[in-house]
Specification:
single chain; Rossmann fold
């Protein structure tokens, strides 16, 4: 879940003006407990919901997905949630396969045209080299065994295939903005949705991908500040995700798997 990379004071001021009704009442869970997504099932597609920022990231991720180069091309969406990527890649010609552990989310993904597979990201039950594109959006910071999850993403990607991921950096800044600040504000990230001990440095992602033949480039990303502030005040409208000079909070990785 994205917590925006803006000045913490500005973020604090605008979110304090928000109201608590934007935070649904959910049972108390351990940090990063997957059952939280069942509790939040009604938030995935609600325009003013707590999970709506994931739509912004899905739109940004889709920009790195080219039109399919062959009939029957496959896009594997690891950690697909309720299928938020689907509207942004629907016209690109892929067979969209979504992998997630949460049944309530997968049911919604299927309603949006995704072929769903219920499984953990570290054990993807798909064939080697079956995917022309693998997307892993806002999932790596939630898996206990990130090395296994990255290995699986690379395994199902065919030689020459495209890998796209975005995740949260393992920095003090990220932990403060995303967890300490973001999860405490009305209208912010759901409480306990992240375990900061699972956040992933770019070096971990780069090295793990390289071991499996995927060379990635890293770039910082953030929400566009004016539109983000407007959203926090009004709970309306999409917020563009734009490049950032800093990878301290949120970053993306885009790469290609080497030929066999």
């Amino acid at each position: 879940m994205l917590c925006p990379q803006v000045c913490p004071i500005a973020y604090l001021r605008v979110t304090l003006n928000n109201v608590a009704r934007f935070r649904p009442t959910v049972p108390s869970r351990a940090r990063n407990d997957p059952r939280q997504y069942d509790d939040l099932a009604g938030e995935w597609w609600r325009p003013d919901g707590q999970l709506w920022p994931l739509h912004w990231l899905a739109a940004a991720r889709a920009r790195h997905v080219p039109p399919a180069s062959r009939v029957g091309a496959v896009l594997v969406d690891i950690g697909c949630g309720a299928g938020l990527l689907a509207p942004y890649v629907a016209s690109k010609g892929y067979r969209h396969i979504g992998v997630d552990v949460t049944r309530s989310a997968l049911e919604q993904a299927a309603d949006h045209g995704v072929l769903v597979v219920q499984s953990d990201a570290s054990r993807v039950p798909l064939a080697d080299g079956c995917a022309d594109v693998v997307c892993a959006g806002e999932i790596l910071e939630h898996v206990v065994d990130v090395q296994a999850a990255i290995a699986e993403a690379c395994r199902v990607l065919r030689p020459g295939g495209i890998f796209v991921a975005d995740t949260l950096n393992a920095t003090a800044t990220s932990r403060f903005v995303v967890v300490t600040l973001g999860e405490s504000m009305a209208g912010g990230a759901p409480r306990g949705i992240h375990d900061p001990n699972l956040f992933v440095t770019p070096r971990v992602l780069i090295d793990a991908c390289a071991r499996h033949g995927v060379s990635v480039r890293i770039g910082g990303i953030r929400p566009a500040v004016p539109q983000f502030l407007r959203f926090m005040l009004t709970r309306r409208g999409m917020v563009p995700i734009v490049p950032s000079r800093s990878t301290a909070i949120l970053y993306e990785a885009v790469g290609v798997k080497a030929p066999a």
